[in-house]
């Protein structure tokens, strides 16, 4: 009995030491206001560390402020990373760490890798941190950075590289994400945040039903059901085969062609497939055009048709938008106003014609925007194209997502150039200087 008591005390001491070792010392924080917060809430930060330590991660996970280091080196390195920090001007509780899972790049897309690491690591970290700070007015949000690995091939030689996932959630969204049991509410909360994979923005779809990728692996489609609980045993066994590359994975990479063929379940993007889809939906499309025309102002010579955009199939509609905007309005302000005044009002009527599962990935709403010119004449038009994935459209349709979130989830082109639109900036700035952020080629 005495031996058991001593053993139990030793375990408690080791656990306490580990948790203290997970929290950054206030003396290591340079900013005075953040250092003061670190000191003031040290006990709460330690409790977050205890909750994180109680988790079992499928592959090695270590808190660390240094990312992308060898696992053996990580075991010997400082593992303190829980701290107060600044992210985009907000005071956040920040947690960084290394997750030693290696995803096969050929079989898992960017979105699937991000979703897997979010559900297996980021979500448990949020569940550990948010309850301790959700009522703390000093904490405006949570910022996580997690490094995992991807196995690919260069000249048919297997190469393993690090990939960093950044997750930022404002305080209200994080609280809803952790507390809610409703999948749509969790997805809406997640869309209020910001996700970056190696610095490139992306959206994480918890139910795995975002825009299809040709590299999609069917085993990952149900990952979102695991949020708030453990992965189903059958799914964990299936996906486990994908996470840590085995010798068979490495050998297959050696034999893999330079440009791997799409998986059998990838969307058929051929002209024949598009024609078949058009034929199957033509009657419904004709009825839609006739009934929605009064508010849509469709272009008569450009009827709805299915098109391929970024390796996905979109149903494309073309129409005209007239706005009482001044001729001095920028093209970005015109695009934002066109969405607010016209495009957004077409989403629910159009979706009403497509119930249940569809054999396409999204809807494109393309409009030529005309603003008022001198003496009430119409100014030359701006071509604005909105490509929205179906999950984001349904989230907006159900009033679970805002118009801004729908824009952030989609792709917007103005005269063929991709941009990002900020609706609030458009309203606040008539000249439109800060309405849009252009996306450089290669980062789409």
Strand content: 15-25%
Rg computed from alpha carbons, rounded to a whole number of angstroms: 25 Å
Poorly predicted ranges (pLDDT <50, ≥5 residues)? 6-19, 211-265, 374-378, 430-444
Q: How would a textbook summarize the main sheet?
A: 7 strands, mixed
Give the overall pLDDT as a whole number: 78
Question: How do the helices and strands follow one another from N- to C-terminus?
Answer: HHHEHEEHEEHHEEHHHEEHEEHHEEHE
Helix fraction, binned, reads 40-55%
Report the count of strand segments.
14
Overall 3D geometry? Answer: elongated
| CA distance, first residue to last residue | 64 Å
Number of domains: 2
Number of helical segments with 4 or more residues: 14
| Class from secondary-structure proportions | alpha+beta
Give your account of this protein's structure.
Helices cover 40% and strands 23% of the residues. The protein is α+β, with helices and mostly antiparallel strands. The chain folds into 2 domains: 241 residues, no CATH class; 168 residues, no CATH class. Helix 3 crosses helix 5. The radius of gyration is 25 Å and the shape is elongated. The N and C termini lie far apart (64 Å).
Write a compact overview of the structure shown:
The protein is α+β, with helices and mostly antiparallel strands and 444 residues long.
What keywords describe this structure?
444 residues, alpha+beta, 2 domains, seven-stranded mixed β-sheet, 14 helices, 40% helix, elongated, disordered C terminus
């Amino acid at each position: 009995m005495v031996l058991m008591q001593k053993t139990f005390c030793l375990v408690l001491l080791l656990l306490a030491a580990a948790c203290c070792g997970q929290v950054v010392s206030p003396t290591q924080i340079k900013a005075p206001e953040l250092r003061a917060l670190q000191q003031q809430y040290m006990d709460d930060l330690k409790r977050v560390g205890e909750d994180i330590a109680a988790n079992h991660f499928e592959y090695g996970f270590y808190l660390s402020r240094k990312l992308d280091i060898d696992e053996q080196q990580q075991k010997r390195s400082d593992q303190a990373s829980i701290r107060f920090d600044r992210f985009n001007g907000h005071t956040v509780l920040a947690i960084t760490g290394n997750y030693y899972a290696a995803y096969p790049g050929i079989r898992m897309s960017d979105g699937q890798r991000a979703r897997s690491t979010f559900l297996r690591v980021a979500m448990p970290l949020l569940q550990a941190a948010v309850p301790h700070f959700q009522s703390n007015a000093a904490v405006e949000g949570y910022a996580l950075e997690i490094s995992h690995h991807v196995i690919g091939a260069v000249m048919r030689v297997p190469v393993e590289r690090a990939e960093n996932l950044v997750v930022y959630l404002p305080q209200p969204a994080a609280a809803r994400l952790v507390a809610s049991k409703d999948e749509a509410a969790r997805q809406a909360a997640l869309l209020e945040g910001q996700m970056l994979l190696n610095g490139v923005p992306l959206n994480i779809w918890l139910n795995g039903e975002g825009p299809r990728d040709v590299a999609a692996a069917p085993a990952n489609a149900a990952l979102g059901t695991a949020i708030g609980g453990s992965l189903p045993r059958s799914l964990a066994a299936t996906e486990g085969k994908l996470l840590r590359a085995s010798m068979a994975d490495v050998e297959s990479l050696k034999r893999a062609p330079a440009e791997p063929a799409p998986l059998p379940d990838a969307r058929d993007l051929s002209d024949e497939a598009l024609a078949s889809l058009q034929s199957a939906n033509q009657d419904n499309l004709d009825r839609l055009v006739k009934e929605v025309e009064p508010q849509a102002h469709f272009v008569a010579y450009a009827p709805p048709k299915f098109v391929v955009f970024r390796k996905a199939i979109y149903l494309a509609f073309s129409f005209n938008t007239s706005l009482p905007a001044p001729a001095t309005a920028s093209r970005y302000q015109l695009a934002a106003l066109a969405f607010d005044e016209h495009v957004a009002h077409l989403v629910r009527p159009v979706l009403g014609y497509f119930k249940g599962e569809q054999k396409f990935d999204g809807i494109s709403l393309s409009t030529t925007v005309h603003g008022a010119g001198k003496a009430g004449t119409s100014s030359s038009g701006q071509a604005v194209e909105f490509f929205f994935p179906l999950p984001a459209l349904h989230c907006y349709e159900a009033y679970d997502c805002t118009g801004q979130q729908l824009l952030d989830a989609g792709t917007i082109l103005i005269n063929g150039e991709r941009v990002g639109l900020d609706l609030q900036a458009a309203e606040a700035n008539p000249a439109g200087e800060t309405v849009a952020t252009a996306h450089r080629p290669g980062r789409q």
